[in-house]
Fold each of these.
Amino acid sequence: MPKRKAEIDNYGGTGIEVRFYPNWFQHAPQCPHGPMLLFEKFVKGKQVSKRFYACSANRDRKDCQAFIWENDHLADDKVANQHLKKSQTDEIRLTFEEIEAAAPENRHYCYECQKFFITKSGMKSHIKHRTMKNITTNDLLQPSRYFLSAKQNDKVHAQYFLSQRSTSFLQQQLEKLGTMHVLCIGMPRLHEMIQVANLKNGPMKSLLMDIDDRYISFWPSDKFARFNMFNHYFFTQSGEKIFNKFVSDASQNQNQLAVVLDPPFGGLVDCIAESLKWIKEQHSSNSKHQTSKLLILWLFPYFMEPRIVDSLPDLHMLDYCVDYDNHKKFKNATSGRKMSPVRIFTNVQNSLVELPQDEGYRFCKECQRYVAQQNKHCSKCNTCPSKDGRTYFHCNECQKCVKPGRQHCSRCKRCELPDHKCATSHKTIGCHICGQVTHKRRDCPLQKKTNTDSAANETKSSLYINDAKKFQKFKL
Ligand code: SAH
Ligand code: ZN
Ligand code: ZN
Ligand code: ZN
Ligand code: ZN
C-alpha cells in the first residue's frame, strides 16, 4: 500500500483539488464511508499532478486508511475494493428499538464507552466508569444534551453543539415559513428540538442525517439515517428508504421541505454543494405537481461566502451570528472580535427573514434586509458591507468598504494592516505550478494531466490553498 500520509495530510501545504466526473458515485472505489473522492495534487514547480482516491469523510488518516492511486483503480477496481472493505471498524451498538424493548431498570449507559448495555446484573466491567441506569424512553430524547460527549476532532466529526439561542432561531424561521418537513444534516440539536415539540403536538417532522453512529441508540429507525454528507452516501439501505419516504411524503402533502445542515467547518464546500444538488434532484423528481422549492439553510463561516455562492449561486448570507455551546472560543460572544464567524447561507428571500431586534439586528431600508447592529450602510457602495459584524469604512482608493484597522497601502495598491509586509501577503494568488500571477493553476498552460480522457469530462474542482489559510487564522 502506498504511503498515503504525506500525500494528503496537509490540504493547505500543497495544492489539492477534488474532481467530480459524471456518475462518479457509481465508478469510484468504495471505502467504509461510501464512494471515495478523487483528489488531484499539484506540487509547486512540477508540471504533472498526481491523482488518487481517498476517504471522503475522514481527513484524519488514522480513522480511515482507504487510499488508492487513480491508475491502480482503473487497472483493477475489484482488487482495490476488496482491500478497502477490510478497514471496516464499526462498533456494535444497541438500536433504539432494542433499548426500548428492555425494562428501564435494565437499561444502562456508560459515559466513558458512550454505549448502552442491557443487563439485569449491573455493569461489572464498567465499574470504574461513570454510568447511568434506570433510563426512561423520554430521557433518550435529547442525546446531545445528556448522553453524548462531542467528538471534537476537527479532522473527522468536528462536533460543536448549537446553542439554545441559535437552535430556537432556526426552528422559529422554519415555523414562520410554514415548513413541515426538515432534513437535519449534522444538526442533532435542531432535530431534538423539533422532536420534543412534536411530542407536544408540534406539526413539524424531522429526520436526522449524520455520520455519527451513536445516534442509532437514540432514535427509532424512521428518525435517523446514518449518512455521509460529502458523498451523499447512506450507510444502510433502510436509511436510504427512510430518506426517500420522508422526501416523497413532503411532496405528496404539498408541504415545504427544508434542509438544514451544519457541516464540519473543514468540510469541502464543493462536496457539500454536490450533495445539496443531489437532494434537490430527489426532491424535484418526487414532486409531480410542481411543489414548493427546497429550502436550504447551511451553517458555515462567513469567510467562505465566495466559495459557497460560487458553488450554489441562489444562496446568500444572512448577518445572523450562529453560536455554539462547547466551542472554546466562540461561546456566547455575538458581537465584537470574539464573535462566532458562523453564518447562515440560504435561498430564503431576505424579506422573509426577520433577525431578532432585541439582539441589536436592524432593518436596512436601502438594502431591504436585516443586518447586524454594527453593519453601517455605505452610500457609496450602496450596501451594508460588513461580513464579520464589525463596522467597515469606505476607502476611496480601493473604491470599496474595508475592514476596520486597515490602511491603504500605495505599494500594494490595497488596504492592508499597518504592520503588513508589502507584497508578501497576497503572493499566493499566483499560479501554483509556475508562480505567475497572470493566471491560476487550473488555467496554467504548463499543466499536464496524468489522465487526459477523464479530465475532459470533469465538471467541478475545489481549491483549498486559500481556504486552509483562513481556517488556520480562526483556529476552527
Ligand atoms: N451544530 C450542530 C453540530 C455541528 S457539528 C448541532 O447543533 O449539533 C457537525 C455535525 O456533523 C456533527 O453532528 C457530526 O457528527 C456531523 N458530521 C461530521 N462529518 C459528517 C459527514 N461526513 N457526514 C454527515 N455528518 C457529519
Ligand atoms: Zn444597507
Ligand atoms: Zn463603501
Ligand atoms: Zn484602500
Ligand atoms: Zn503594502
Amino acid sequence: MSPNKEFWSSSKGFVLAMAGSAIGLGNIWRFSYIMGKYGGAAFMLVYLAAIFLIGLPIMLCELSLGRASGKGPLEAMTELAPKKTKLSFLAAVALILCATAFALKGLYFYAGTCGFFALGALLFGWGFLGFTVTFLTPLMIAVFYSVVGGWIIVYAIISPMGRIFREPAFSAELLDNIVTASGSQFWVTIAAALAFFLATAFIVMAGVQKGIERFSKIFMPLIFILIVAIIIRALTLPNAHEGLRFLFLPDFSKLSAEGVMAALGQAFFTLSLGSGVGIAYGSYLGRSSSLPKTACTIVIMDTFASILAGLAIFPLLFSTGLSPEEGTSLVFKVLPVAFGKLPLSPLWGTLFFLMLLLAALTSSISMLEGAVQGIMQKLYLSRAKAVILLIIVLGPLVPLTAVSAANYSNVPKLGQFFTETLKLRSESFFAILDNTTCLWLMPLAGLMTLLYVSYVWGNKSALEEMNCFNAFDWLFSKMWLFVVRFISPVLVIMAFLKGLGIFF
Ligand code: TRP
C-alpha cells in the first residue's frame, strides 16, 4: 500500500491542527473538574511532571512512528518491525499478571480489560497496539466527548437570551437537567449530543486539509483572548486569592493514589496521546520539519491553555462559594456566573461557548480521523463510506451515554440492563468510558509505544526520523533518548502500581 498522499499544506498548518486536537474540552472542562476533585496545586505538580516527563516523550515517539511509516496508527507498528517479538510476548505475560491481580481484588471489569489486551498481544503482537490506538480508545472517547460537546451546544444556543447569566438559579436548574438528561431537557440533551457527533463525522468526511486545517487556523487564537478577559475579571472579585492559593500552594496530604493516576490520565487526554492521533497526523507530515521543535510547541501551547483555564475558573469558583468537588458540571456552573459579572454578558457568553464548541470539534475530529484512515485501508472503502460506517456503529452509543449520567433514572429498563444484567453497579456508562480510557487504555498504550520505540523499532531509527536541525534539537533528542528508555516507562509503571495500591 502506498503511503498517505494527503500532506499538510505547511508545517505551520500541521502544528495548528495538532494543537487543535490537543486543545479542547480537556483543557477547560476536564482539567478543572479533575483538578477540583483531586485537590489543586499538588495535583498540578504531578500533572506537569506527567506532561513533560511522559507526555512530551510519547508525543515524539508517536510523531516519528507516523512519519517514518507513512501509515496510519493501525499499520505503523507492523510496518516498521516484525509483528510479534519477544517483547510483545513479555507484555502479554505482564498483562495476564495484571488481570490476575485485578481479579483477586474483585475488580472484574479491569481484569477483563487486561485479559483482552493480553489475548490481543498474544494473537496479533504489535498489531494489537495499532488496533487499540486506532479504534478502541479514540472511538470510546469520541462517544463521551460528544455528550459534553452536546452540553456546550445547548449553552451556546441559550446564551444569547442572557437568562443563564442573569439568574444563577435558572442556570443551575437548567444545567442539572442537561447533565442528567432529565425533565424538559431529556430530548434536547440527546439531540445535542447527536448533533455534535454528526458534525464531527461530517467534517472528517470533508477530508484532512479542508476539514481540519481551516477550522484550526482561524479559531484557536480567539479562545485565548476570551479566557484572558475572564481571568482579568475573575482576579478582581472578592475571595479570588483563595483560588490562586488552591492552584499554586501544594498540599501533598490531599494527593491520593487515585489523584496520581488521574493526573497521568489527564496528561494523556489533554495531549491526545495513546490514541493514534500523533501517528495519524505525523503520517501526513512532510519530511522537512523538525519533530522536537514541533512537539515542544504543541505541548507548551496545550499546557499554557490549561493553566490559563485554571486561572480563570478557580478564582471564580471560590469567589462564588461553589465547591471544587463539583464534578463533571463544574465549568458549566462557574462560567455563567463569570459572564454574569461582565458587561454585555450575552455577547461574551455566546462567543465563548461558540468558540469552546469549535475547540471541541477540532479535537473530536482527531478522534475519528485515525479510525477512518484505518477503515479505508483495511476495508478498501471510500472516506465517505468509512465515516458512514462509524456513524452506524457509534451513533446509537451516543444517546445511551447521554442518558446514563442520570444513572438511567429516565430509562429504567436500560438501567436494569446495565446494573443487573451486566452488573456494572453505580457507575454511569459515561464514567466507565471516561475512566477506562483515561486511567487505563491510554497510559497502557503509551507505555507500549515507549517500549516499542526503544526496544523494537529502535530509537536510533526514531532519532533519524526526527530531523534535528540545530543544537537545541540535538541536545533535546539526546535527552529524549534517555528519558524514553529509562524514565517515562518507569514512571508510568509506578503510577499504575500506585493506582493499584501495590506500591508506596
Ligand atoms: N486532547 C483533547 C482535549 O483536550 C481531547 C482529544 C482529542 C483526545 N483527541 C483525542 C483525547 C484522542 C484522547 C484521545 O480536549
